[in-house]
Amino acid sequence: MKLISLQTKTTDNFKTNYKHLKELITSCEEGSFILAPELCLTGFCYERMDAADEFTQKTKKKIKKLSENKTIAITFLEKEDIDYYNTLYIFHKGKVIHRQSKHRLFPLGNEPENFAKGKKENMKIIDVDGIKVASLICFEIRFPEYWLNVLGADLILNPSMWGVKRKNHFETMTKALAVANQCYVLTANSANEDMAKGSGIITPWGEEIRDDEEEIISHNMDLSEVKKMRKYIDIGLKKKWK
């Protein structure tokens, strides 16, 4: 399976953001697993959250259609009852197969004042065509307790909008997560000027395929490499997740 990290800029124009994202997704080969940056279609538009939610409801249907021959993971700003959430959707073969709202909200970005927390129990491993997949949304990767929720995954997703001042933290932690869990990590960060970029794929061996300039970063995932690493240095993951 080809893993694809999209590294796009987010503008104030929702429609322009979607048009560009659609072009990139359409250009990706069939059967690929695609991850988009956190809230790449709307950004954290606190003064236009109702408009963002309205746009999300229309766009989810379009993304679902684009996923008929691909797997697409993307976060949306959406409203439920009176609360707003930052929610990751995984679309696979034209269906929503997983939904997970951000549980640990970033205080420096005023997220706790504007979003409700997602349920921690949705931070779990799911099966996608025989591959164990889990997700940590941006800031969540900083918390070791959440690493336990994704322990044993073959592939961990990390959609982010991570600031450039903490670029070293972002790249260090995503690599550490891959090495500690002996798995692939697919991370997609924003390409805006004040963002860290650093999107890409980290292998179970700690090899980093990153690029700060490209919008599409790809790498073929070989599940046998996960098994090989867990056999080579057995820390219990091989036995637990046979």
Give a quick set of tags describing it.
omega-amidase activity; Nitrilase/N-carbamoyl-D-aminoacid amidohydrolase; Omega-amidase_YafV; C-N_Hydrolase; 27% strand; alpha/beta; 242 residues; 6-stranded mixed β-sheet; C-N_Hydrolase_sf
Question: How would you portray this structure in words?
Answer:
The structure is a single chain. By secondary structure, the protein is α/β, with parallel strands linked by helices. The chain has a single domain (2-240), classed as Nitrilase/N-carbamoyl-D-aminoacid amidohydrolase. It is built from seven helices and twelve strands. It has helices at residues 14-27, 49-66, 111-114, 144-147, 167-181, 223-232, 237-240; strands spanning 2-6, 33-35, 71-80, 83-92, 95-101, 126-128, 131-135, 155-160, 184-189, 200-202, 208-210, 216-220. The strands form two sheets. Strands 5-4-3-2-1-12 form a six-stranded mixed β-sheet, with helices on one face. It has a six-stranded mixed β-sheet with strand order 6-7-8-9-10-11, with helices on one face. A hairpin with a 5-residue loop joins strand 10 (200-202) and strand 11 (208-210). Helix 1 (14-27) packs parallel to helix 2. The mean pLDDT is 96.
